[in-house]
UniProtKB/TrEMBL annotation:
Similarity field: Belongs to the cytochrome P450 family.
Name this polypeptide is given: Cytochrome P450
Organism: Dactylosporangium siamense
Pfam families reported for this sequence: p450
InterPro entries, sorted: Cyt_P450, Cyt_P450_B, Cyt_P450_sf
Molecular function GO labels: heme binding; iron ion binding; monooxygenase activity; oxidoreductase activity, acting on paired donors, with incorporation or reduction of molecular oxygen
Length: 389
């Protein structure tokens, strides 16, 4: 069997080149964590299989943490639940997180994008991550959910996010403290929204009344961690890709009607969810003739499947006029991204505005990137220079 060294230089330096090399050899490759699935047909199939589940607290168990607050917190996140527990909470949240609510929110997203773009247009260089992608994703998410923006809340959310890493033992005290602070903060906020509901997601969930306070707190933390870094890094990846494809940037600047196609093409071509969310076999299961024993781990490698030449014509070409591309960046099956409609609106409202205002953007110093093994992949620093005439 071919193997993918997730921690080796080839994958770290150019993950797409390494994934393309392996995908040409076979639809699957062995990694230290489990089997990476690399082609579109098989990734699509595995995302639908009910014999597979998301990892829950399995990665904590691998680090020797098998019970207590951290395990309970981890198991409470929607993405980590399965079966009836998942179906019930997902149904209730979907009832509030509707396309209608997202569409009604579109002008707010457009306003936040316009404000940040005009600040960029007042100068001729910026760090695209610090000055646009990060504040845009953060402000949109907090406004949509109804969480006041504060440095404390950001810090606590980011500390709780450490639960998804592989240094949980070392970070245990920090995570525990953050959970306690967030619980107190959210209890207070829930009481306020119950007393005086507003036009936001949290008020809709509180007013509905069918989620318990524990479920509500867990849902808010889920949304804050699932809806911020993903969008921020998706925007960073998009800008890095446009820097390498300047004719596509010019085209978008001239053709804002390509907004919807662009929003799909950037998530296909350079997904922030590069590796996808791993799955664990609940029972023995076969994919394309290969047996996965109960307990084995399977990685739906979105970044490879989205450029599979068996599915996409000219798969390695970034083309914002492409239509009907069935990329897998938002996952599939019961865990299909709950925030996909909001993410689409964010990309549709921001990228054409940026392309119209910032002419001929070019790198303006070295970029810095997260390692591609993180839950999300993208630049943490992306200095660019541009003209605005
Ligand atoms: C470009 C941005 C985004 C990307 C690439 C992304 C990607 C994903 C992926 C890969 C999954 C897992 C799907 C699976 O494995 O089948 C997921 C689930 C989820 N996402 Fe997103 N996401 C994005 C934006 C958002 C936003 C803006 C929100 C909320 C405001 C959000 C909330 C969620 C939630 C709650 C889940 C768990 C759903 C469940 O388990 O039922 N995401 N997302």
């Amino acid at each position: 069997m071919t193997s993918l060294d997730l921690y080796g230089a080839a994958f770290r330096t150019d993950p797409y080149a390494e994934l393309a090399r392996l995908r040409d050899l076979s639809w699957h490759a062995q990694t230290a964590i489990g089997t990476a699935v690399l082609r579109h047909a098989e990734v699509q199939q595995l995302l639908q299989l009910r014999e597979l589940r998301t990892p829950g607290a399995d990665f904590l168990a691998l680090q020797g943490i098998t019970d207590g607050l951290l395990v309970d917190t981890m198991r409470g996140f929607l993405l980590n639940t399965d079966g009836d527990d998942h179906a019930r909470v997902r149904r209730l949240v979907s009832g509030a997180f509707t396309t209608r609510r997202v569409e009604a929110f579109r002008p707010v997203v457009a306003g936040i994008a316009a404000e940040l773009v005009s600040a960029l247009a007042a100068t001729d260089r910026c760090d695209f991550v610090r000055d646009f992608a990060q504040p845009f994703a953060l402000r949109v998410l907090h406004t949509f959910v109804g969480i006041p923006l504060s440095a404390d809340v950001q810090q606590w959310t980011s500390d709780v996010g450490l639960l998804f890493g592989m240094d949980v033992v070392a970070n245990g005290d920090r995570i525990t403290t953050a959970i306690a602070h967030l619980d107190a903060f959210l209890d207070d906020l829930l009481a306020q929204r119950r007393a005086v509901p507003r036009d936001d997601l949290l008020s809709a969930l509180v007013t509905d009344g069918r989620l318990t306070d524990v479920e509500l707190r867990s849902m808010v933390v889920t949304l804050m961690s699932a809806g911020q870094g993903t969008v921020q890094h998706q925007l960073g990846n998009a800008m890095a890709t446009f820097l390498a494809n300047p004719e596509q940037w010019r085209l978008l600047g001239d053709r804002p009607d390509l907004a919807a196609r662009t929003a799909e093409e950037v998530v296909r071509y350079c997904p922030s969810a590069l590796l996808g969310v791993p799955r664990i076999a609940k029972s023995d299961v076969t994919i394309n003739g290969l047996l996965f024993r109960a307990g084995s781990c399977v990685l739906p490698v979105t970044g490879a499947a989205n450029r599979d030449p068996l599915t996409f014509p000219a798969a390695a070409t970034f083309d914002i006029t492409r239509s009907g591309a069935p990329h897998l960046t938002y996952g599939g099956g019961i865990h299909f991204c709950l925030g996909a409609a909001l993410a689409r609106v964010e990309l549709q409202e921001s990228l054409p505005r940026l392309a119209a205002a910032l002419r001929a953007p070019r790198p303006d110093g070295p970029a810095e990137w997260l390692p591609p093994t993180e839950a999300v992949y993208g630049p943490t620093r992306l200095p660019i220079a541009y003209s605005t005439d």
